[in-house]
Write a structure and sequence with these properties.
Helix content is about 65%, strand content about 5%. The protein has helices spanning about 1-20, 20-30, 35-40, 60-65, 80-90, 105-110, 125-150, 170-205, 205-210, 215-245, 255-280, 285-300, 310-315, 320-335, 340-370; strands spanning about 50-55, 80, 95-100, 115-120. It is built from 15 helices and four strands.
Length: about 375
């Protein structure tokens, strides 16, 4: 009878979700358009940065420097005057502005080390930081080769044989697409379960459940399996049709093994969603709690930056978070093709963390239902 109650209550949750158009749009967006935009946007690298150049020298050296800026790092340089460059930088038309002073080539050949002015729009912080280094290297290389009448080929004392594994072409969006799927799995599982509980409280249907012959364990388990199943199916669709199909990102490992790990992760995060749903009294409060919980989970789990670059105290604390182990599991399976012999510690950690979160959330859920009764 308990199993039947859990199944029927779970089906009720799925039907309730199907009648919520906002949640359906959120799920569809999170596992389609969000994945595509996150993968194709490359904010951390220099890509088609607009650059303007003021050439006050008009010499062969200045022409060499101008011709050295080309896609994909920069757009074709725009030759402007000084007032036009200032106006363009103020209007956000150019990220970089280079001013080549008069007599630049003569001073270079005379060994006077002339100054070349570089203006960078720091509101585009990442591109301004990376692009300044690129521009300095380009200008130094062109000036050196012009003075020496040839390009210097430095022979290294050793021959470094570079072997790039798992992403030989260093295609940046491969990593971004998979990590976005992982982050959205965590986000949607917490949102759906917490919103399901708050929705029943706001609509008054939770009181109907209290007079039925069902236990808090059955109610909570039904919400966990139903919302977890929705996110699991959506993530499988996203990986197969968006990541592997539309974006052509190769997935190295077993999809079934990854989905098994995802199911354990969902067991933990859906329980966390129930816990947050019992604390929040309304959807706005639940949204504020999500900001406090999701941001640290996603930023410190290793999905955005390597855990090894974080302080050891943070690394130790984040071992208690389920998505830390899920990120390690997903990267091992999807990027490196690892099997169960490699990821079994993460499976064990997710099982233990999920059991603890489920028990704590169930206790809190019982108290909430008791106060309502």
């Amino acid at each position: 009878m308990a199993v039947a109650n859990i199944v029927y209550l779970g089906i009720k949750e799925v039907r309730s979700l199907m009648r919520d158009p906002i949640m359906l749009v959120l799920i569809a967006y999170a596992f389609t358009l969000s994945i595509y935009t996150r993968a194709t946007a490359i904010p951390e690298t220099l890509n088609k940065a607009p650059i303007a150049i003021v050439d006050e020298d008009g010499s062969p050296l200045s022409e060499r420097i101008i011709s050295a800026f080309y896609p994909p790092y920069f757009t074709p340089p725009v030759l402007v005057t000084q007032p036009e460059m200032d106006i363009g930088m103020d209007d956000g038309l150019y990220t970089f502005g280079v001013d080549i002073p008069p007599e630049f080539q003569r001073d270079v050949l005379a060994g006077r080390r002339p100054a070349l002015q570089l203006n960078a729009d720091a509101t585009r912080m990442t591109q301004a930081f990376n692009g300044s280094g690129y521009i300095q290297a380009i200008v130094d290389g062109e000036v050196r080769s012009f003075v020496q009448r040839s390009r210097e080929n430095t022979v290294a004392p050793i021959d470094l044989a570079l072997r790039i594994r798992f992403n030989p072409n260093l295609t940046k969006f491969w990593f971004g697409a998979v990590m976005q799927v992982i982050n959205n799995i965590t986000m949607l599982s917490i949102v759906l379960t917490g919103a399901a509980l708050i929705r029943e409280r706001e609509h008054g249907t939770i009181e109907h459940l209290l007079v039925m012959p069902v236990t808090p364990f059955e109610i909570m388990t039904a919400k966990v399996w139903s919302m977890g199943l929705v996110v699991l199916c959506a993530s499988a669709f996203s990986l197969n049709f968006v990541v592997r199909g539309l974006l052509a990102v190769p997935v190295q490992g077993s999809m079934l093994l990854f989905l098994a790990g995802t199911a354990l992760h969902l067991f933990a995060t859906t329980s966390m969603g129930i816990f947050l749903g019992t604390i929040a009294r309304s959807m706005p409060q639940f949204g504020l709690l999500l900001m406090l919980v999701l941001l640290p989970l996603q930023m410190l789990s290793g999905a955005s930056t390597p855990r090894e670059s974080m302080p050891e105290v943070v690394q130790f604390i984040m071992l208690a978070a389920p998505n830390t182990h899920f990120v390690m599991l997903a990267q091992s399976i999807l990027f490196r093709g690892s099997g169960m012999d490699v990821v079994w510690p993460q499976f064990g950690a997710l099982t233990a963390i999920g059991s603890v979160l489920f028990s704590v959330s169930l206790g809190r859920f019982r108290k909430t239902l008791g106060s309502m009764a």
